[in-house]
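Hi F.,

I've been meaning to write this up properly since the lab meeting, where we talked about keeping a consistent format for the predictions we share between groups. The idea is simple: the sequence comes first, exactly as it goes in, then the structure tokens exactly as they come out, then a line or two of notes. No screenshots and no reformatting. I'm using this chain as the first example so we have something concrete to point to.
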Amino acid sequence: MEANDPIKKRIVINLDNPPGGQGSAGSRGYGQQRRKSRSWLKIILVLFLLIVMGVVAVGVGGFLWWRNYQTKPAYSLALIIDAAQRDDMASFKKQIDDDAIARNLIADVSKQAAERYGIALNEGMQKQIDAVIPTLLPKLKTTIEEEVAKEIKEFASKSQPKPFILVALAVPSLVTITTEGDKAKAVAPMSNRTIELGLQRDADLWKVTEFKDEVLLQRVVDNVMKDLPAIGGIDFGKTLLKGLQKPKKRR
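Output, unedited:
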């Protein structure tokens, strides 16, 4: 009888993949999720490396720029301003060549001193002025150091004392600097005038070798006049009469 029964269908149940295919879809979804996670990790790693490389590049570039800036006249001027603000005369003197400044001032000082005698000036007095002033060079150097420091402090007083790095970065916007070879000129505006500094390259730094300012010049002349004959002690009448006398004709 069993032989006459219809053939029994064999039913196979796949326990690893339940009906509806949910297991297969879940496996694929899990695999895709893992691949996406790995992709994001790679992207984050690449971004991190780019950021690190950018920071390093900026750091190296900044260092090279700063090293190059230290060889510019603006950096030396920043050192001078910083030393003047801190009353550090030892550092201040390192940045100025008082011998050169004095030598460059002698001609102007002689001229201004002579002009103060007015009509009392004669050829003999002019020769005396020209002879005396160069001998005052040591004293003139001390006066110049003090007066230049005053001028720099006055210029720096336009702003509150700042850390040196800020002073160095601010100098190019405060002073007009032109460079030609190993020489440079810096023009600094004051409240009622401008001062002009001449600089000379000295190894990797620059030293001030010339300082042009009418106020400074008059202060130096005031000090020099103390060592010249008093204007009030000159016989103006005799000097004027001598200048008006006509030379006698030779027979």
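Notes:
Residues 22-69 form the longest helix (48 residues).
Confidence is low (pLDDT under 50) at residues 234-247.

If this format works for you, I'll send the rest the same way.

G.
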